[in-house]
Amino acid sequence: MNATPPTGNNVATNLGPYLSVVLPCYNESEVIRETHRRVAAVCQDLKQSYEIVVVNDGSKDDTWAQLRQLTQEDPHLVAVNLSRNHGHQLALSAGLHFVRGERILIMDADLQDPPELLPEMLRKMDEGVDVVYAQRRSRPGDALLKRIFCAVFYRLLDRLADARIPLDTGDFRLISRRVCDLMGAMPERHRFIRGMVSWVGYRQEAILYDRDARFAGETKYPLHKLVGLAVDGIISSSRKPLAFALVIGSIAAAFGLLLLLYALYSWLFVGTTPQGWASLLITVVLMGGLQLMVLGVMGEYLGRIHEQTRGRPMFIVEAVVRKGDAGPPPT
Ligand code: UDP
Ligand code: MG
C-alpha cells in the first residue's frame, strides 16, 4: 500500500483560522502601523479566516500603546505583551505559542520581509510542503559589515550543523500547524528557530526574494546580539565545537610529545639541551590559550545545561489584548 500520509498542513486539526501571522517587535513604534496595514491588506485578499499575532518584546517606546489602539480597529489582531525584553527568538516563540492557525507565517515587523510573498508561499504549501522558507537573493538594506558577518556565519553553520540549515535564510517562512506544534514541544531556552525548523524535517522548500531595507527605525540587532544569535545557532545545532576542542587538544599534546622526544634526543646523543626562554614562553602561552579556549567552549555548553535545568518559563506574558478587551491606551 502506498497511501500518502496526511501532510498536516491540509488537515484541520483544530478550530483555529486558516492563517496566523506572527510578528515579534521591539521598539517598532515608527513601523508598526504600516506593517499592520500591509499585512492586513495581504490577508484580506486571501478571503480566508486569519489572525495577526503581534508580540511586543518589552519595547521602551510607545509600540504597546499603538498596538492596543490597533486592536480596537482590527478584530483580527491579537496583541501580546511580554513582561520585559526577552530577545527576538523568545518573542517569536511566545507568538508561536499563541497562534491557532493551520498555517503560520513568521516575519519581522520592520517590513524587510515583504508580506506580499504570502500567496506564493501558500501555493507552495498547497503542494504538500510543510515549510516554505524565503531565501534572500540579495540584502541591499543591510550594512556591509553585517552582510559579511552573516555570509560567514551561514557558511560556518552549514559545515557544523547536524541538520541542513539553508544558507541566507532568516526566520521569514510559512510553516504548517504540525511544525508549529513541534516548535512548542522543544523546551530548549536558547532557541535558534530556523535551526529547529530545519531539524524537524518533512518537505521544506525555498522561494527566492530580495530583502528590502527597513521601512523605518534602526536595526534591533546590534553586533553583540548578532554574535549571541550566531553562538546559539552553532551550539544548539551542533556538538562539533566540542569535538573540535578535542582535536586541537590532541594536536597540541602531540606537538608537546614531539618536543619532549627532541629534547631527550639532544640530551642523550648530542649532549646539549635546547636553549632559550622564548620557545618555552611561546609554548606555555600557546598551551594556556588553547586550554582556556577549550574550557570556554565547554562552558558555553555547560552554561546552557545549567539554564535548562533551572526550568524557568521561557517567557513571561504580561497581557493579551484583542478587540473589546481594553479601552483606549493611556495617554
Ligand atoms: N526584535 C525583538 N526583540 C529584540 C530584538 C528584535 O522582538 O530584542 C524584533 C524586531 O522588532 C524585528 C525582528 O525582531 O521585528 C528583527 O529585528 P531587526 O529587524 O532589528 O533585525 P535585522 O533585520 O536588522 O537583523
Ligand atoms: Mg530587520
Features:
331 residues, alpha/beta, 8-stranded mixed sheet, binds uridine-5'-diphosphate, binds magnesium ion
Summarize this, please?
By secondary structure, the chain is of the alpha/beta class. About 50% of the residues lie in helices and about 15% in strands. The chain has an 8-stranded mixed sheet, with helices on both faces.
Beta-strand content: 15-25%
- Please tell me how large the radius of gyration is: 25 Å
Shape assignment: elongated
Cofactors, ions, other ligands: uridine-5'-diphosphate, magnesium ion
Question: How would you characterize the overall build of this protein?
Answer:
With 331 residues, the chain is an alpha/beta fold. 48% of the residues lie in helices and 16% in strands. The chain has ten helices and eight strands. It has helices at 32-46, 63-73, 88-98, 118-126, 144-160, 177-184, 193-200, 223-237, 240-270, 277-310; strands at 19-25, 50-56, 77-82, 103-106, 131-138, 169-176, 204-210, 317-321. The protein has an eight-stranded mixed sheet with strand order 7-5-6-4-1-2-3-8, sandwiched between helices. Helix 5 (144-160) packs parallel to helix 8. It is elongated and about 90 Å long. The N and C termini lie far apart (65 Å). The model is unreliable at 1-10 (pLDDT under 50). Residues 24-26, 28, 57, 85, 87-88, 91, 108-110, 112, 219-221 line the site of uridine-5'-diphosphate.
